[in-house]
Specification:
Number of strands: 15
Number of helices: 16
Shape: globular
Radius of gyration: 22 Å
Largest sheet: 7 strands, mixed
CATH topology of the largest domain: Rossmann fold
Strand content: 15-25%
């Protein structure tokens, strides 16, 4: 069997390292898969070479986005040129099936599949258009919203299988008329060993940052704005300092401008000496997570967030960190209520959530790590992905033609 795997992110992006490359390695381990052509979308201008990566079975062929003056013209050109390239790749490499990661990649797969009649699945499927409206990134006057919404609906009709990331979304898709046989829930999973709690790294980072063992450390990894809180996140940091007092320390790992992040913290009275802001490489994150005692997961709880599966939550749990988040964040909020792994925040009464976190932290970092890592094994292990892949891609009759 020959697979084409289409991702909407670039080879060197963090999401690719966290969610795409591990999937490719799992697929390469399946005996019935002979070759995988991996297409990433490259927008940065730096040349990305075509060639084998990760495993002899995997050949990387980048799709390069050509700037056309503005975002709309560039996107329009992408949606003309990329499907043509995918069709050529399918013909040249005699592709049997396509896997599209995200509904944006699924749109390209759908356009290519209309021409070559190759069955495709869409994994990491979420109502992206709806989410962008609710998060305030797009408006309903934005043509990107209508284009994305159209393609999401076409994928649901045409794909051999849809892999949503939450059981809430599976329920909704079934209510909308999609057969349960076409739906497989695949949450955003992580390589647990890569993020596993490391006591030695905890000691090393705390020593480096001048943090005492009896001091409480909160950590945030990710962006601000869009689907994530911006100002509200910094308000919550302020509330944490008020609750824990001078013994609290905050680590922020973000790719966003350090001076701007620092400015927002200082505006809320946060002492810069109690704060560490860093642009960490993906393989550095484990050490900083290990140094922390709990993690902020400040995702806007808009209605469509019920259908998400934040990769950062999987990484936090893999490290054994309790999470502070709100209700209706994918299946994760339900898991916290039912099984532990963190606390649910009521933004009107943040001290209540911090009190519960304090009680969790008092159990000790090692004990929390053991308990929460078991939770991660149940819900966010790559074993979940491998089980689904082996079920779906070892039998050529599994997917029907489009």
């Amino acid at each position: 069997m020959r697979l084409l795997f289409v991702s909407y992110w670039g080879l060197n992006e963090g999401l690719t390292a966290a969610t795409v490359l591990p999937h490719l390695q799992i697929l390469a381990s399946i005996e019935t898969i002979d070759q995988i052509i991996f297409c990433s979308i490259e927008r940065g201008g730096e040349p990305i070479a075509t060639g084998p990566i990760l495993h002899p079975k995997i050949l990387h062929i980048p799709l390069v986005s050509q700037p056309k003056g503005n975002v709309f013209l560039t996107k329009a050109n992408d949606f003309i040129s990329f499907p043509r390239q995918l069709i050529q790749i399918c013909e040249e490499y005699q592709i049997d099936k396509m896997i599209c990661r995200s509904p944006m990649a699924g749109a390209l797969g759908y356009l290519a599949a209309r021409k070559n009649n190759i069955p495709f699945v869409v994994e990491s499927f979420e109502p992206h258009a709806e989410s962008m409206i609710e998060s305030g990134v797009w408006t309903k006057l934005d043509p990107r919203y209508w284009i994305e919404l159209y393609f999401e609906r076409q994928q649901v009709k045409a794909a051999g299988k849809i892999f949503p990331v939450s059981f809430h979304h599976k329920k909704r898709l079934m209510e909308e008329g999609l057969s349960e046989n076409k739906i497989i829930v695949m949450p955003c999973c992580v390589a647990l060993d890569k993020f596993k709690y490391d006591a030695a790294k905890r000691s090393a980072i705390r020593l480096q940052l001048g943090i005492q063992e009896n001091q409480t450390v909160g950590i945030y990894v990710g962006k601000y704005g869009g689907i994530y809180y911006d100002q509200e996140a910094f308000d919550l940091y302020r509330d944490a300092f008020h609750f824990f007092g001078e013994s609290f320390r905050l680590i922020i790992l973000t790719e966003q401008d350090r001076s701007e992040v620092l400015k927002k913290c200082l505006e809320r009275g946060v002492d810069a000496n109690y704060l560490f802001i860093h642009r960490a490489k993906h393989d550095e994150v484990n050490a900083y997570l290990s140094a922390a005692d709990f993690a902020f997961s400040t995702i806007k709880p808009v209605p469509s967030r019920l259908y998400c599966s934040p990769i950062k939550n999987g990484e936090y749990w893999a490290n054994g960190l309790p999470i502070i988040t709100e209700m209706n964040i994918g299946d994760d909020s339900d898991i916290i209520v039912r099984e532990g792994g963190g606390v649910i925040l009521d933004r009107n009464h943040p001290a209540n959530a911090f009190q519960k976190l304090k009680e969790l932290i008092s159990k000790g970092r090692a004990r929390n790590s053991e308990e929460i890592q078991r939770l991660a094994q149940r819900h966010r292990s790559m074993d979940v992905v491998e089980s689904i892949y082996r079920q779906e891609f070892t039998d050529s009759s599994k997917l029907t033609n489009i």
